[in-house]
Design brief:
With 492 residues, this protein is mainly beta. The protein contains four helices and 31 strands.
């Protein structure tokens, strides 16, 4: 773990560079966001800041084991392990007895109510996270959990549990039986990486991978809250095709998603990286992640285009997004730089897509042969964004803080489109929208004794401007450790 200040030290606010006084630059950024006059002036005044509000312990003895260099309770690709809906925040984790656990609290409170849902983790595999989501129209909380290229387990709450929390006791009876299908829809026997998101129509969508690492497909299912039923929409990415480098070729792969985000206009944005099945495409590296790619959908994931609007795939058909689809790559990178998969993404108020990626820059050499040690020694995060909500130019800025970790960071935007990178161990760096996200500064680097990755509440910032993230304290072996939720006030 990198050196850090004494415990409970806090760097508040942005550095002097975090809010630029360049009026012309501020006007240009405001214009790109579709603002002018007083709106542009307001945007210029709102630089990034993070004020520590509270740090609450969810569980003093949460389950702990290291697998694939991660913990099952705080893998960043979990996405919705912490979420906010209708004045309450919800968190999910596995307790020391392996029981799947869900807690809720009213926003602003440090008192959590905790309940178990009747499922125990089946295997010590950090991929087998708990994914939570809400179907707003019927007020149900949904959990998909405990899967890695395998079957999965599903639980949904009673109707109205999250839409009318005061009317429902937080008890096991508030949740239905544990299922191995989505109310009878089986999907796949090789499910991994569930993510639950709400579509503009109000449908709850489940994104998942079917297949295995290096030979799998991104797929979607959808819950209709009016009918209370699930439907399998099918795969939308292809595992087939040929990818060739100077070293060799690969004929199979999977697309790892950085996330799925709907913009204000209803466009679904997805960044990702490809992982090849064959290591023949590398200089000798042990993982084959390459290129940052981007696709979007204007019809809730039914059809897909590249950034220029060219059709590249149709979900559930024989025409899928593939490694040979035109115009997907927005940041080219060979498989030799320890590029992280499933990092993070966001969409700003002007509909511009943003991604956070990380890898070992070429100045440290052109061949990283050991993924973990290479990233710990030399990996840096980068911010990638598109100038305009349509087919604008792509930009990339190196965030000037070494990761000191093999793990992922998370990207969030505040009400003023300032960007925050929550890095391993809970460090927070930020950049102002006014600068074009070029003035990255460290805001918070307290020693939390966090293991590494964190799980962020992507919903809460839009509600009250609070950045919440879940972290688990570092331990040894299988000795349980405390799991926390920490809160920071951002500009509103």
């Amino acid at each position: 773990m990198p050196a850090s200040p004494s415990r409970r030290s806090l760097i508040l606010g942005a550095s002097a560079a975090a809010v630029t006084s360049a009026t012309a630059l501020g006007a240009a950024r405001a214009g790109a966001a579709g603002t002018s006059g007083a709106g542009a002036a307001a945007a210029a005044q709102a630089g990034p800041s993070a004020t520590l509000l509270a740090d609450s312990v969810l569980d003093p003895t949460a389950l702990y084991f290291v697998s694939y260099d991660g913990l099952v309770n705080n893998n960043a690709f979990q996405r919705s392990g912490l979420l906010t809906h209708n004045g309450h925040q919800y968190a999910v984790w596995y307790a020391a007895d392996r029981e799947a656990t869900v807690a809720r609290r009213a926003l602003g409170s440090d008192t959590w109510e905790t309940v178990t849902v009747g499922h125990a983790l089946t295997v010590d595999d950090s991929h087998n996270v708990i994914c939570a989501g809400v179907s707003p129209a019927d007020g149900r909380l949904h959990l998909v959990m405990d899967a890695h290229s395998s079957g999965y387990f599903y639980v949904k709450s009673v109707e109205g549990l999250v839409s009318s929390p005061a009317d429902h006791a937080w008890t096991p009876e508030a949740f239905g039986p544990v299922q191995t299908s989505l109310d009878g829809v089986t999907l796949t026997s090789t499910l991994t990486y569930p993510q639950l998101i709400v579509a503009p129509s109000g449908a709850l969508q489940l994104s998942y991978r079917t297949g295995v690492s290096g030979n799998g497909q991104a797929a979607l299912a959808e819950y209709d809250p009016e009918a209370g039923t699930w439907a399998d929409l099918g795969a939308w990415s292809s595992a087939t095709g040929t990818y060739t480098t100077e070293y060799g070729s690969s004929s199979a792969r999977n697309l790892y998603l950085h996330g799925l985000n709907y913009g204000g206009d209803g466009t679904l944005h997805v960044f990702g990286t490809w992982r090849e099945q064959s290591t023949a495409v590398t200089c000798g590296a042990n993982l084959t992640n390459h290129d940052t790619v981007y696709v979007r959908s204007a019809d809730q994931g039914r059809t897909w285009t590249n950034a220029a609007g060219t059709a590249v795939g149709t979900t559930g058909s024989s025409s899928l997004v593939s490694v040979s689809s035109p115009g997907l790559v927005v940041d080219p990178l060979s498989p030799d730089h320890a590029l992280m998969n499933q990092e993070s993404q966001a969409v700003d108020s002007a509909g511009r897509p943003h991604a956070l990626i990380s890898y070992v820059p070429g100045r440290f050499g052109q061949c990283v042969t050991d993924y973990v040690s290479g990233r710990i020694a030399n990996a840096y995060p980068f911010h990638v964004w598109q100038d305009g909500a349509g087919a604008g130019a792509w930009h990339k800025t190196e965030i000037p803080f070494a990761l000191g970790s093999s793990q992922r960071s998370q990207l969030l935007l505040d009400a003023h489109d300032n960007a925050y990178a929550v890095m391993p161990y809970g460090r927070i760096a930020a950049a102002s929208a006014e600068s074009g996200w070029s003035d990255w500064a460290m805001l918070f680097e307290e020693d939390l004794n966090a293991f590494g990755e964190i799980v962020t509440d992507y919903d809460r910032i839009a509600v009250d401007g609070v950045l919440s993230f879940l972290y688990q304290e570092s331990s040894t072996g299988t000795t349980s450790s405390p799991i926390h939720v920490i809160d920071f006030q951002l500009p509103t």
